[in-house]
């Protein structure tokens, strides 16, 4: 199945431009999300769940650093699949651990973002990514 999808993506040469636009869009949305959380720090920290540690502040800082790093990695296309995988795991945790009581309408946005990240996991960074420049064997031929 994945081989058929990869063959279709090679057939359509504009897919790389579409992946570039998607990477920039998702990276910008994620960066704005982190900036918004930092601006509302005092309000958010009171209700932030201490998922990894007993300290909610440390969890908040670590998650924001991970989100920021993944946003940059997705935009420039460096380890795109890894960054998208990390972010899709984050969305999965949001949906099923942090906000399970909200129901579908409460996690609709997280499901949408997880779909974008899953697409990037499958498609990779595309031709206009640093991944293609440094890691893709086909780009050296």
Structure description:
This protein has 141 residues and is an all-alpha fold. It has one domain. The protein has 7 helices and no strands. The chain has helices at 2-11, 15-39, 41-47, 56-76, 80-98, 103-123, 130-134. Helix 4 packs antiparallel against helix 5. The longest helix is centred in the first third of the chain and has 25 residues, at 15-39. It is elongated, with a radius of gyration of 17 Å. 20% of the residues are buried. The model has no long low-confidence stretch (mean pLDDT 84).
Q: What's the count of strands? A: 0
Q: Into which percentage range does the β-strand content fall?
A: under 5%
- Overall shape: it is elongated
User: Please, what is the average pLDDT?
Assistant: 84
- Compute the CA-based radius of gyration: 17 Å
State the major sheet.
none
Number of helices: 7
What structural category characterises the helix and strand content?
Answer: mainly alpha
Task: Give the low-pLDDT segments.
Answer: none
- Helicity level: over 70%
Order of helices and strands: HHHHHHH
Please specify the SSE layout and strand pairing.
Elements: H1 2-11, H2 15-39, H3 41-47, H4 56-76, H5 80-98, H6 103-123, H7 130-134
Label this structure with key terms.
141 residues; mainly alpha
Could you write a compact summary of the structure shown?
This protein is mainly alpha-helical and 141 residues long.
